[in-house]
Fold this sequence. Notes:
By secondary structure, this protein is mostly helical. It has two domains: 10-47 and 111-209, no CATH class; 53-109, no CATH class. 69% of the residues lie in helices and 4% in strands. It has helices at residues 4-24, 30-43, 55-80, 84-109, 119-133, 138-161, 189-209, and strands at 164-167, 171-174. The chain has a two-stranded antiparallel ribbon. α2 packs parallel to α6. The longest helix is centred in the N-terminal third of the chain and has 26 residues, at 55-80.
Amino acid sequence: MAGFKTHLVGGVLTAAAVSSLGLTTKVLTLTQGGAVLLVGIVGGLLPDLDSDTGKPLALLFQIISVLIPSTLFFTVAQYGGNSAEFLLCYFAVSYLFIHYVVCHFVKKMTVHRGMMHSLPFAVLCGGLGYLLFVPSSKDVAFFAGIAVFLGSLLHLFLDEMGSFTLKFGFIPAVKKSGGSALKVISNSLGATLVCYGLVILVFVTIVFFFPP
């Protein structure tokens, strides 16, 4: 299994490629390209949300706790306003809720190399990346969704590559973890159904309410 630094570098390279494409084709502005770069890097780490321990998980949730409220702020501000007191309460409550409540729930409900290490989860991440940026621009949403999806997909490929080893120094062999990243179903029927249900819900929302 690839380590945190490997996944981080992979996420950076993938996100940089997608962001650069948007910039060179002049579809994205410099600021929008930077936003796509950021979410793409996070996408390269998202499958490790099912890792119960370690600094990488804590760092990932710290980033998400800031990134998601920031992305949704202008939509929420239409209802709550943009006063200093609303700003303070919104970001404080959002950070605490995601960092502690959601993080605790994810730890309790997931197992490592479960459904979060699967192709449907990578698709789900890409769809959510698209929806997060729709209020800004559909062009940004498209590039953000692609960056998150490819980052998550590369994470799975890197983990799968880490499942190979050499016996006696030269004979290729597959570890027990082989096939546990690039899968379409998990050992848990419930987790599999929830993941596919969310994929369907996200893409129905995109197709009917926010088509590219």
